[in-house]
């Protein structure tokens, strides 16, 4: 008998609806509070009972599947929706280290687009959960903005894959690693800017060498595609503070149409012959859709 197959993206109806189910459940619980503490407690108990019931069923299903079709483990783990439910019930087929390593592999193309990389040094177990120790490498040339961007992308990916991780520590690289090392002080500082990931499926329509403007959560962003990779920046020239609307690419150099300043679109928007930088915006595939990370205070 052939192993059963999981439905592909086209076979999953209203996928986005289920990905936001947690928010809707929380909204209903908050609404139940209007009936008083007793009503809120009953609503929370109902959710726990339902969750425990489905968790027990998932556990039996996973036991049966793993005996009959163990190769399905990777298929389940690769589906974001299934994996998230398995994580809730402690039934994910892969351990924390495997999931963190896979998460880092998934974000490496983005890090590489900014001239960076990350190494998993280890995972420690503590009373409050797991602590992931990372070390960044790269050639962002002392750009704190880019350093924070890379840290944000990695942290988002790791926490999505392993929510039981309580903290992420960035270890300073060796002093002799070369002049192009991303500054350790910029990386070690934890990200304090609340960020919302916004789906921008229109990004996939960019042609190679094309520059486009996109309104994301009320903020204008500039994005371009080079060699199959997409790079995004805030729509503001750091040299003259003007909009970059009308900017064109010359090779990998993005030039401001107002003042003519050039920026390396591939390497974190580094200024050509100057110290100014464009403000990079993380772009990752989340839930199968290209998305941008927009700081909430900006949006």
From TrEMBL:
<feature type="domain" description="Rieske">
    <location>
        <begin position="197"/>
        <end position="292"/>
    </location>
</feature>
<dbReference type="InterPro" id="IPR036922">
    <property type="entry name" value="Rieske_2Fe-2S_sf"/>
</dbReference>
<dbReference type="GO" id="GO:0004497">
    <property type="term" value="F:monooxygenase activity"/>
</dbReference>
<dbReference type="InterPro" id="IPR017941">
    <property type="entry name" value="Rieske_2Fe-2S"/>
</dbReference>
<comment type="function">
    <text>May be involved in the formation or repair of [Fe-S] clusters present in iron-sulfur proteins.</text>
</comment>
<protein>
    <recommendedName>
        <fullName>Rieske domain-containing protein</fullName>
    </recommendedName>
</protein>
<dbReference type="GO" id="GO:0016705">
    <property type="term" value="F:oxidoreductase activity, acting on paired donors, with incorporation or reduction of molecular oxygen"/>
</dbReference>
<keyword id="KW-0001">2Fe-2S</keyword>
<keyword id="KW-0408">Iron</keyword>
<comment type="similarity">
    <text>Belongs to the NifU family.</text>
</comment>
<keyword id="KW-0411">Iron-sulfur</keyword>
<dbReference type="GO" id="GO:0005506">
    <property type="term" value="F:iron ion binding"/>
</dbReference>
<dbReference type="InterPro" id="IPR034904">
    <property type="entry name" value="FSCA_dom_sf"/>
</dbReference>
<dbReference type="Pfam" id="PF01106">
    <property type="entry name" value="NifU"/>
</dbReference>
<dbReference type="GO" id="GO:0016226">
    <property type="term" value="P:iron-sulfur cluster assembly"/>
</dbReference>
<dbReference type="InterPro" id="IPR001075">
    <property type="entry name" value="NIF_FeS_clus_asmbl_NifU_C"/>
</dbReference>
<keyword id="KW-0479">Metal-binding</keyword>
<dbReference type="GO" id="GO:0051537">
    <property type="term" value="F:2 iron, 2 sulfur cluster binding"/>
</dbReference>
<dbReference type="Pfam" id="PF00355">
    <property type="entry name" value="Rieske"/>
</dbReference>
């Amino acid at each position: 008998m052939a192993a059963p197959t999981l439905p592909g993206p086209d076979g999953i109806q209203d996928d986005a609806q289920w990905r936001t189910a947690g928010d809707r459940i929380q909204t209903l619980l908050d609404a139940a509070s209007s009936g008083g503490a007793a009503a809120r407690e009953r609503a929370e108990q109902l959710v726990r009972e339902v969750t425990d019931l489905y968790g027990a069923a998932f556990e039996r299903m996973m036991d049966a599947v793993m005996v009959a079709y163990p190769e399905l483990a990777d298929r389940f783990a690769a589906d974001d929706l299934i994996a998230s439910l398995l994580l809730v019930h402690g039934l994910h087929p892969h351990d924390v280290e495997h999931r963190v390593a896979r998460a880092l592999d998934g974000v490496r193309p983005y890090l590489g687009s900014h001239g960076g990389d990350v190494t998993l040094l280890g995972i420690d177990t503590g009373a409050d959960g797991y602590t992931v120790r990372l070390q960044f490498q790269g050639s962002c040339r002392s750009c704190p903005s880019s350093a924070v961007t890379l840290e944000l992308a990695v942290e988002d990916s790791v926490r999505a894959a392993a929510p039981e991780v309580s903290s992420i520590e960035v270890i300073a690289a060796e002093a002799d690693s070369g002049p192009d090392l991303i500054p350790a002080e910029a990386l070690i500082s934890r990200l304090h800017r609340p960020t919302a990931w916004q789906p921008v499926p229109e990004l996939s329509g960019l042609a190679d060498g094309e520059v486009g403007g996109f309104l994301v959560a009320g903020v204008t962003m500039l994005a371009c595609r080079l060699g199959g990779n997409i790079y995004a920046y805030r729509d503001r020239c750091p040299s003259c503070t003007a909009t970059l609307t009308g900017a064109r690419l010359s090779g990998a150099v993005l030039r401001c149409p107002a003042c003519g300043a050039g920026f390396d679109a591939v390497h974190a928007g580094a200024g050509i012959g100057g110290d100014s930088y464009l403000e990079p915006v993380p772009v990752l595939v989340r839930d199968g859709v290209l998305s941008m990370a927009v700081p909430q205070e900006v949006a």
